[in-house]
Automatic annotation (TrEMBL):
GO MF entries: DNA binding
InterPro entries assigned: CheY-like_superfamily (IPR011006), Sig_transdc_resp-reg_C-effctor (IPR016032), Sig_transdc_resp-reg_receiver (IPR001789), Tscrpt_reg_LuxR_C (IPR000792), WalR-like (IPR039420), WH-like_DNA-bd_sf (IPR036388)
Keywords, alphabetical: DNA-binding, Phosphoprotein
Pfam families: GerE, Response_reg
Annotated Gene3D superfamilies: 3.40.50.2300, Winged helix-like DNA-binding domain superfamily/Winged helix DNA-binding domain
UniProt-recorded name of the protein: Two-component system response regulator DesR
Residue ranges occupied by any Response regulatory domain in the UniProt entry: 3-119
GO biological process per UniProt: phosphorelay signal transduction system; regulation of DNA-templated transcription
Length: 200
């Protein structure tokens, strides 16, 4: 029996995913989480074989959870299930240690097969995105990404500096570098371009 934890912040989608998986005779949904922090706690507590998680969730993103599972050396394998058909997100998911990356509009039978493949030690990657993922690499450093994300949320440089324990000048340097790398005119445009490519 493959023990699965499903993490999704939309209750109806969470219920539907769990129901889809529980139809399978060899898959058992052992827990459900509605945010990233809860998912990580349940991974530690229940030690599921596979975590099926959305990317965008409150607290921690699915990518954050995958990275933390990898950092802690936990045996749970991660499958990202998302609406984001962007190669940048796939690259970040793989870098975080995810073994699977599927789109929510994939046929439902692919979901169970992906869980089985990942549980067996393989990978389950949307084939179209897999081809695209290696055509353009993410130019942002992790710190530039942090700063740009906070700027996109409307924080001023001084507020970003306080949030990240950096000097105001250092924040401006990171923003300037990110804007330049995105070929953008300002921080808002830079954040938009980075989001469209899945880098933010």
């Amino acid at each position: 029996m493959i023990r699965v934890l499903v993490a999704e912040d939309q209750a109806m989608v969470l219920g539907a995913l769990a129901a889809l998986l529980e139809i399978e005779s060899d898959i058992q949904v052992v827990a459900r989480a509605q945010d990233g922090r809860e998912a990580l706690l349940m991974v530690e507590r229940d030690a599921p074989d596979v975590l099926l998680t959305d990317i965008e969730m409150p607290g921690l993103t699915g990518l954050d959870v995958a990275a933390e599972i990898t950092r802690r050396g936990l045996p749970t394998r991660v499958v990202i299930l998302t609406t984001f058909a962007r190669s940048g997100y796939l690259r970040r998911a793989l870098d975080a240690g995810a073994a699977g990356y599927l789109l929510k509009d994939s046929p439902s039978d692919e979901l169970a097969n992906a869980v089985r493949r990942v549980h067996a030690g393989g990978r389950a990657i949307d084939p179209t995105l897999a081809r695209e993922a290696w055509t353009e690499s993410d130019p942002l450093s992790s710190r530039e990404r942090q700063v740009l994300r906070l700027a996109a949320d409307g924080l001023a440089s001084t507020a970003i500096a306080a949030e990240l324990f950096l000097s105001d000048g250092t924040v401006r340097n990171y923003l300037s570098s990110a804007i330049s790398k995105m070929g953008a005119a300002n921080r808002i445009e830079a954040a938009r371009v980075a989001r469209e490519k899945g880098w933010l």
